[in-house]
Amino acid sequence: MVLKEIYICxxxxxxxxxxxxxxxxxxxxxxxxxxxxAKKLQPILSKKKFTxxxxxxxxxxxETAHLAxxxxxxxxDALLEWNYGEYEGKTTAEIRKKDPTWTVxxxxxxxxxxxxxxxxxxxxxxxxxQDHEGSILxxxxxxxxxxxxxxxIGLSAYYAKHLALSTTSVSVLGFExxxxxxxxxxxxxx
Length: 190
Fold this sequence. Notes:
Blueprint: E1 3-10, H1 15-19, H2 32-39, H3 41-45, E2 50-55, H4 59-67, E3 74-75, H5 92-95, H6 115-129, E4 134-140, H7 142-152, E5 170-176, E6 179-187
Parallel strand pairs: 1-4, 2-3, 2-4
Antiparallel strand pairs: 1-5, 5-6
């Protein structure tokens, strides 16, 4: 058997994801609504057998994994959210007061991770999964998950800006014959 699919679950709602603040390495807990949404992942994910479960070490991802029924994910820094450097905790509107055309995918991030660095991190992590068999489950954050999706289908991280991703969403990377494809993107259970 070979790698079949990679399921990606974005963490539940935190105070900063709700307010639109860039949340890279700040280790925020889930809000109660985020916890409730994470619990709703359990019946969806339990229908699938996963040969490996990975999570960002940040509590918002780990807590989402636990509430979704996966209490012992393998923690990896490869799934950490983008390092926003000086823009950590700021909204896009706040950043644009200094740089009116700023976007995370087009502009430099002072003292943070570059687009090329996050793309390389995503490429290396996906390459490390190629020897796995069956289906794999990941718990992580929004921007890194979007970059994983773009890189999976052969695009640069820049194009991840076209892959919107809601909190507590499920996305599936897979294959159409041998070609990597997005089998499902941004599914949110009601």
